Amino acid sequence: MTFLQQYGPWAIIAGASEGVGQHFAEVLAERGLNLVLVARRQAPLDSLAADLQQRFGIETRAVTMDLSAPDASARLLAQLEDIDVGLLVYCAGADANYRGFLDAPLTEAESIVQRNCLVPMQLCHHLGRSMADRGRGGIILFGSGAGLAGARNMVAYGASKAFDMVFAEALWCELKPLGVNVLGLMLGETDTPALRRLRFQRGLSKSPNQPVKGAESVDYVVRDALANLGKGPTRLANRKMRLGLRLLFPLSRNTLVAIMAKGNEKVMGK
Fold first, then answer.
1. Does the annotation count 157 as an active-site position?
2. Mean pLDDT throughout 53-67?
3. For position 23, what pLDDT does the model report?
4. What is the mean pLDDT of residues 225-232?
5. Which position among 98, 161, 213, 240 bears the catalytic label?
6. What domain range is 169 assigned to?
7. What's the half-sphere exposure (Cβ side, CA atoms, 13 Å) at 23?
8. pLDDT value at position 149?
9. At 53, which CATH number?
10. What is the pLDDT of residue 269?
C-alpha cells in the first residue's frame, strides 16, 4: 500500500501556521495528500493553503480556530463531514508563556489541558473510529521531553504532554491491529519560530529570528516522524534526547509499552 493509499486522501494538521506544523503540511502536500490546515491565525493559513495548491495541485481547507475553546473539536469535525480523513497530525499545543503555575491565572492551565488533552482525545475518538472501519489511517500526536518529568514553569504543560505520551502509546496498542498507525512524537529542543521568539523574550538571544544552536531542524523532525510512522508507538524526534535517555532509562519506551501490553493481557485478557 502506498503512502497516499494508507493515509489519504485528506490529512488534518492542527497547528499548521508555522514551524513543524507548516513543514508537515509542505511534506504531506508533496506526497499528494489534500490538507485541512488548522490554526488561530487566518493570514498565514490562507497564504500556506494557496502556496501548496499552486505548487502541488492538491486541495486545501484553511480552518481558523482556537483549539483551547470548549467547542473546538465539535466545530472542527463539522468541517470534515464531507471528506475522508486518513491522517491526523496534532502538533498544536506549545506553551508560549513559560511561567510559574501560581503566577498565572488558572484559566491559562485549563486552556492547556483543553488544547493538549481533551481536544486531541475527542478528535482521535471520532476519526479513529472511521479509520478503523476502513482498516487504514494514521495519527501523530505531539509530545515533548517536558512530559518525561516535572519541571518549574511547565506544570500544566508538562503534565499535558505526559498524558499525550501515554495516550498515544495506549491508542497504538488498540488501533495497530485494526490497520491504523499511531505515533507519539516526542520533541526535544527544535529550532522553531516560537522557540526563537521565547528565547529572545527571555534574553537568551539577540534577535527573535536567531537560529537556536544545537536544536533539531523542523525538516529533521518531520522526516524522522514520517519514517517512523508505522513503527510506533513512541519516537523521540531529537538525537541528543535519544542518547541521553539511553543512559537514564535502559529500557526504551517501546519496550516498556510491549511489557505493559503483555502484562495487561495476562491479567485482563485480550
1. yes
2. 96
3. 97
4. 94
5. 161
6. 3-268
7. 16
8. 81
9. 3.40.50.720
10. 54
Give the pLDDT confidence of 65-94 residue by residue, as tens digits: 999 999 999 999 999 999 999 999 999 877
pLDDT band at residue 193 under the 50/70/90 scheme: confident
Domain count, the chain: 1
- C-alpha cell at position 117: 488533552
Catalytic residue among 7, 90, 98, 157: 157
**SS3 letters across the chain:** CCHHHHHCCEEEEECCCCHHHHHHHHHHHHCCCEEEEEECCHHHHHHHHHHHHHHHCCCEEEEECCCCCCCHHHHHHHCCCCCCEEEEEECCCCCCCCCCHHHCCHHHHHHHHHHHHHHHHHHHHHHHHHHHHHCCCEEEEEEEHHHCCCCCCCHHHHHHHHHHHHHHHHHHHHHHHHCCEEEEEEECCECCHHHHHHHHHCCCCCCCCCCCCCCECHHHHHHHHHHHCCCCCEEECCHHHHHHHHHHCCCCHHHHHHHHHHHHHHHHCC
